[in-house]
Amino acid sequence: MRITWYGHACFKVQGEHSIVTDPHDGKSIGLPAPSIDADVVLMSHDHFDHNCRTAIRNSNCKLINKPGKYNEKGFEITGIETFHDEASGSKRGKNIVFKFKANDINFCHLGDLGHALNSEHARKLGEVDVLFIPVGETYTLPISECWETVNVLQPKIVIPMHYKIGTLTLPINPVDVFLRNAGSEEVVHLGSREKEINKEDLSGGRKIWVFSF
């Protein structure tokens, strides 16, 4: 199974079928425009840098942009309602955290989460093996609450996203701000925007996988 990063919060997880998270159009945020085949598309909220349907080449994909439980193309999917800010959505609206299971690995994509998750969120989500977490701070949760959320969900692999890279025009922080607080966590700079993943990668201590774009 392969994870591919298209910049910002957009990832593709590809096994027998493929699932894509929060596609963007590229040009609106200063990145190359992605063009992706997908069987299932998850959209955490309806902001321009997370909701670009035209980034998906095939029109017959299944779009999921509401909370609930779904089973599509072999993916077991749970979406829970959260907020895009620390004020119950009064500033930037709601956000959906999606968990999906593929090849017996539990992935969780936090979208533009604006507040720390708590034990009740963790109960609803269940086991998380791989966590995609926004770490750019502006528009999303502060770094201290990133680590609170990591400690609540207890993933085996943490994948930072939604941070400043290259030509990205959004005023958000680079990943280094998040990594400075990693302590004894194992940080792996992958040097690529793609990574194969299997169950063996979940063994040992927690790892932080930093993709390159």
Which tags fit this structure?
single chain; 213 residues; mainly beta; Metallo-beta-lactamase, Chain A; 3 helices; 31% strand; globular
Overview of this structure, please?
It is a single chain. This protein is mainly beta. It has one domain (about 1-210): Ribonuclease Z/Hydroxyacylglutathione hydrolase-like (Metallo-beta-lactamase, Chain A, 4-Layer Sandwich). It is built from three helices and 14 strands. The strands form two sheets. The chain has an eight-stranded mixed beta sheet with strand order 6-7-8-9-10-11-14-12, covered by helices on one side. The chain has a six-stranded mixed beta sheet with strand order 5-4-3-2-1-13, with no helix packed on it. A hairpin with a 2-residue loop joins β6 and β7.
Question: What is the element layout, followed by pairings?
Answer:
Blueprint: E1 2-5, E2 11-14, E3 18-21, E4 40-42, E5 62-64, E6 68-72, E7 75-83, E8 94-102, E9 105-109, H1 119-125, E10 130-134, H2 143-153, E11 157-161, H3 176-179, E12 186-189, E13 194-196, E14 207-210
